[in-house]
Amino acid sequence: MKIAVDAMGGDNAPEAIVSGVMLAKKDFPELEFQLYGKEAEIKKYVTDESNITVIHTDEKVDSEDEPVRAIRRKKQASMVLAAQAVKKGEADACFSAGNTGALLAAGLFIVGRIKGIERPGLMSTLPVIGENRGFDMLDLGANAENKAEHLLKYGILGSFYAANVRKVENPRVGLLNNGTEESKGSEVTKKAFELLTNEASINFVGNIESRDILNGVADVVVTDGFTGNAVLKSIEGTALNITKLLKQSILDEGVKGKLGALLLKNALGGLKNEMDYSKYGGAVLFGVKSPVIKTHGATEPEAVAATIRQIHTMLETKVVEKLTEQFERDDAAN
Amino acid sequence: MKIAVDAMGGDNAPEAIVSGVMLAKKDFPELEFQLYGKEAEIKKYVTDESNITVIHTDEKVDSEDEPVRAIRRKKQASMVLAAQAVKKGEADACFSAGNTGALLAAGLFIVGRIKGIERPGLMSTLPVIGENRGFDMLDLGANAENKAEHLLKYGILGSFYAANVRKVENPRVGLLNNGTEESKGSEVTKKAFELLTNEASINFVGNIESRDILNGVADVVVTDGFTGNAVLKSIEGTALNITKLLKQSILDEGVKGKLGALLLKNALGGLKNEMDYSKYGGAVLFGVKSPVIKTHGATEPEAVAATIRQIHTMLETKVVEKLTEQFERDDAAN
What is this enzyme's catalytic activity, as reactions (chains A, B) (predicted)? Predict the structure, then answer.
């Protein structure tokens, strides 16, 4: 298994990326890595050269670059070369912590869509609060709008991922809607409800509300890219603000606060750990021909290693191949 | 000023509703209340009869009733009678803690839309975390989908409310979108961006993301009803889950946890108070001819009193009359 790595993407590149690869190598000594980027900088952090190939390039996609233009014009950018390696069959998967839009464009235009999946979706595994498990949600923003047919595909895609990669038995697929009743929703969600209900290959459990997703009402949450993006950012913003407020309130209490915080160190630490979903890996652009994974821009080595673990599972379980086969079979049958 | 009250709506009715009215009466002895519902039950909680009229009815809208059907068929329901009182001019505003959909239907079909406002929106004042102020957001779910033109109206409506009722000078209006760049969004938000930019009567500050709204990036957040509903419920779900998790983690720590929690009592209490936006009152169905306000179903007397304070300000500032005049003027000019 070969993984093409954009070593220059993200705020802490290349240090965090390369250090993360080094961490992951310990668990998966058989994995081969191609690191794209500035050779001299990358090599500083390569502590074990076995199965590591560094491919030098000076160019990189910047966070403020317009995504599609960057992919088309910066032909030698580390991210573009990593995606090209996957396209040419020189690598089995690629990942980057860089410009999300550009990575989505690289996935769609370089790696390419699976036949039958018109609109690949961005999917993450998010935490079920207080339980040691997650749920998959898509689309988190690969698309600015979606049709009901796309949502049906997201149900199938998410279910495939939950069953194969996360080993969830008969995953419950829920449709994010503005109420749980069957009659609820916009034109798109009403039609999607019907399509999902009639899809025999998945375990559709009906409409769910964003209030309940962190409680684990479904193993797979299906939504359009605009709503998914807004919901994910709402969860992140709320969690961040509450944590910040709690810290400030503790500081305001002076010595009493510090003592209280010391006594509650485990409890407060558990809260942080609970909300940190980078332990499940990165966001998958799901529906393209090979795993294309986005890690958070401000990523640390541990999160990079978690992402490599995730990619390893995706490759080992052949989830993308299986998905491709099923869609090709369906396509041939129609 | 006369307020028509659905005394039977919500989980704790009529006790919480009537007790809240009694609380509010102390601050606003001049307000007149019409309490609709079961007379014998209501009277148990009326501790001061001045300016209180109880209008007996046995019928009420239940939480599981289909909204539009309930409004059409349950002609004698306490909520319907309260809305009728407003329509007939016997009351200046109405409020309920009952079935949200039914109250929206009562507002639209009984109280009626302001000419020029095709789709009234549900608006709440939400908290800016760590600061003693709020922001207004609409539509929170009165509509399952909206056109760009509706979002323009929400910008005007929200701005009107923030300026008149909350006394915010030149309120900053932001459009909730999937990125802050001008080019971002769905067809609807792209067009709304253009319409809001060209609207001279408001201070439009551009696209904002749901991650930042609790930080107060705008005084008015404009969004379609589907997204607004999903974002509000995400914020509520996340806050609730974090609080629950924190409590559980503290309990798991045993004596140490209890001691820590005791020392942090103020800090933890501040967190709860900060997230509780019922202090700003209820959700306004904004764009109908008189104030129609929804209070949370599980409301307590304090929240009912806060809602009455809000209604008092809305009536005193004549915000709905001013809005109606402006839209009629615009309508005449076109």
Answer: a fatty acyl-[ACP] + phosphate = an acyl phosphate + holo-[ACP]
On whether ipTM exceeds 0.85, the answer is yes
Its pTM stands at: 0.94
Q: Which 3 state secondary structure label does DSSP give B274?
A: helix
- Please indicate, yes or no, whether residues B188 and B298 belong to a single structural domain of this protein: no
Rg of chain B over all Cα atoms, to the nearest angstrom? 20
Sheet holding B292-294, edge to edge: B52-56, B32-37, B2-6, B93-96, B292-294, B283-286, B121-128, B133-138, B220-222, B172-176, B203-208
Cβ-based contacts of A186 with chain B (< 8 Å)? 144-145, 226
Domain boundary, last residue among B278, B306, B325? B278
Q: In whole angstroms, how far apart are CA A283 and each of A11, A140, B286? A: 17, 9, 39
Find, in chain A, the residue whose alpha carbon is nearest to that of B145: A186
Specify the CATH number for the domain of residue A53.
Answer: 3.40.718.10
Chain B nearest-CA distance from A131, in A, is 10
Q: Which domain holds residue B311?
A: 1-117+287-334
Token code pair at residue A180: 């749980």
Strands A283-286 and A292-294: antiparallel
Dihedral of CA atoms B4, B9, B10, B14 in degrees, nearest 10, equals 80
Residues of B in contact with A176 (CB under 8 A): 230
Q: Do residue B132 and residue B164 come from a single domain?
A: yes
A-chain residues near B259 (CB < 8 A): 260, 263
Closest CA to B154 of B99, B77, B224: B224
- Tell me the nearest-neighbour CA distance from B126 into chain A, angstroms: 12
Residue carrying the six token digits 């049958």 = A333
For A158-195, how does the pLDDT look when each residue is reduced to its tens digit (9 = 90+)? 999 999 999 999 999 999 999 999 989 999 999 999 99
Residue B29 CA, chain-centre distance (Å), reads: 24
Per-residue pLDDT of chain B (334 residues; tens, 9 = 90+): 999 999 999 999 999 999 999 999 999 999 999 999 999 999 999 999 999 999 999 999 999 999 999 999 999 999 999 999 999 999 999 999 999 999 999 999 999 999 999 999 999 999 998 888 999 999 999 999 999 999 999 999 999 999 999 999 999 999 999 999 998 999 999 999 999 999 999 999 999 999 999 999 999 999 999 999 999 999 999 999 888 888 888 888 788 878 888 877 877 777 777 778 888 899 999 999 999 999 988 889 999 999 999 999 999 999 999 999 998 887 777 6
Contacts of residue B224, defined as CB under 8 A and 6 or more positions apart, other chains included, come to B139, B143, B145, B146, B150, B151, B188
What the block records as the tokens of B63 is: 């939480």
Q: Does residue B206 sit in the same domain as residue B150?
A: yes
- Which residue of B129, B178, B229 is in closest CB contact with A178? B229
Nearest to A212 by CA among A125, A122, A123, A128: A128
Taking Cα atoms as reference points, which of A204, A149, A122, A193 lies closest to residue A171? A204
A212: Cα within 13 Å, side-chain hemisphere: 15
Question: Which of B326, B330, B324 has its CA nearest to residue B112?
Answer: B324
